[in-house]
Amino acid sequence: MRRLLAIMLMVFVAPPVWAAGAGGDMMDARVDVSDQSSLQRGAKLFANNCMGCHSAKYVRWNALPDALGVSMEMIESNLVYGSYTPGDTINAAMRSEDAADWFGAAPPDLSLTARARGEDWVYTYLNSFYQDSDASIGWNNTVLPNSSMPHVLWRMQGVPEARYETHNGEPQVAELVVPTDQQGTLNEAEYQRVTRDITNFMAFMAEPVRAKRQEMGVWVIGFLIIFTGLAYLLKREYWRDVH
Ligand code: HEC
After folding, report:
1. CA distance 160 to 131
2. Least C-beta-crowded within 10 Å: which of 66, 88, 114, 239?
3. Backbone angles phi, psi at 72, to 5 degrees
4. What DSSP character marks residue 79?
5. CA angle, 223 as apex, 220 and 228 as ends, to 5°?
6. Quick check: 235 and 15 in contact, CB under 8 A?
7. Which residues, in sequence order, are bridge partners of residue 163?
8. pLDDT band at residue 22, thresholds of 50, 70 and 90?
9. Which segments of 20-103 are extended strands (E)?
10. What is the pLDDT, as a whole number, of residue 39?
11. Whole-number Å distance between alpha carbons of 214 and 66
12. Range with the lowest mean pLDDT among 33-47, 99-113, 177-191?
C-alpha cells in the first residue's frame, strides 16, 4: 500500500517539476488553454499582427468556434481577411518567397511553434525585442539574436533599448529598458498580457485538444483514486479469512 501511495504521489507531484525544467532564464508563460476570453483576444491579436507574414497551415478555421466559444460568423467577421471557406487552413497574406526576399528569412509556419520551441520560449521571444544600438542591425532579439523578424508590436510596447554588461571582455545584454520618451500605448503589465494571450492562442493551435485532454485527465485520476480505494477494501476482505 505504501509503495502504491508513493507511485500515486509521483504521478501528482512530478508533472509541474518536469515542466519547470524548460529553459534557463525564460519567462514563465503560464498559459491556460481553457481560458476562452484569453484565446479570443489572442486569436484577434494573431490575425491582426502576425498573419500578414505567418501561416498556421495545420489549423482550420472551423476548429476555432468550439475552442474560443464564439460562432463561426464572429470568426468570419473578426479574423478572416479575404475570401475563404470554413474548412480552409490559416494562410499568411504574404507569399513566403516574397517574405524571404524582404526579410532575409521566410517567416516560419506557426502552427506547431509553441510545442517545438516551448510556450515559455515564444512568450520570452515576444518580450525580448530591442532596437540595436548598431543601426545597420535595426531590431534585434535576445532570444533569437539577429532575428529577421521586426518588432511588430512596438507601438504597444514602445521601443526597448539594451543595457550592456561586460562578461569576459565581451559586452552582453543585461536588461531591456523602454526609455521614457519611447513608451508605447501599453504599460509593461498590459504588454505582458497581450503577449501571453498570443502565446496562449499559439499553444491552442499547437495542440487543439489540450483543454479537453486536461479536463479528461481530472476524471481519469479521480476514477483511479476511487478504484484504488475499492481494490484495497476488496483485498482486505479477501485476506481477512486467510489471516
Ligand atoms: C513583417 C513580417 C512578420 C510579422 C508581421 C510577424 N513575423 Fe514572426 N517572423 C518573421 C520572420 C521573417 C521570422 C524568421 C526570423 C528568423 O529566423 O530570423 C519570424 C519568426 C518568428 C518566430 C520564431 C519561430 C522559430 O521557431 O524560429 C515566432 C515565434 C514568431 N515569428 C512569432 C510571431 C508573432 C506571434 C507575430 C505576431 C505578433 C509575428 N511573428 C509577426 C516575420 C514576421
Report:
1. 6
2. 239
3. -60, -35
4. T
5. 125
6. no
7. 175
8. very low
9. 56-60, 89-90
10. 96
11. 16
12. 99-113
How many angstroms is it from 107 CA to the middle of ligand 1?
5
Give domain limits for the chain: 24-206
Write the CA distances from 151 to 109, 126, 160, 187, 225, integer angstroms: 18, 8, 10, 16, 49
Other CB atoms within 10 Å distance of the CB of residue 99: 19
Ligand 1 centroid–CA 60 distance in Å is: 20
Residue with the larger pLDDT of the pair 10 and 76: 76
**Minimum CA distance residue for ligand 1 atom 6:** 50
Written as nine digits, the cell of 30 is 503560464
Question: Which residues define the annotated binding site for heme c?
Answer: 50, 53-54
Those residues whose C-beta lies under 8 Å from the C-beta of residue 31, and which sit 6 or more positions away, are 119, 123, 196, 199, 200, 203
Q: Considering the entire predicted model, what is its pTM?
A: 0.83
Compute the distance between CA of residue 175 and CA of residue 128 in angstroms, rounded to an integer. 9
3-state secondary structure 137-201: CCEEECCCCCCCCCCCCHHHHECCEEEEEEECCEEEEEEEECCHHHECCCCHHHHHHHHHHHHHH
- Cβ–ligand 1 contact at 92 (below 6 Å): no
Rounded Cα gap, residues 120 and 30, in angstroms:
8
Q: How far is CA 15 from CA 9, 12, 21, 213, 224, in A?
A: 11, 7, 10, 15, 17
Q: Which CATH superfamily is domain 24-206 in?
A: Cytochrome c-like domain (1.10.760.10)
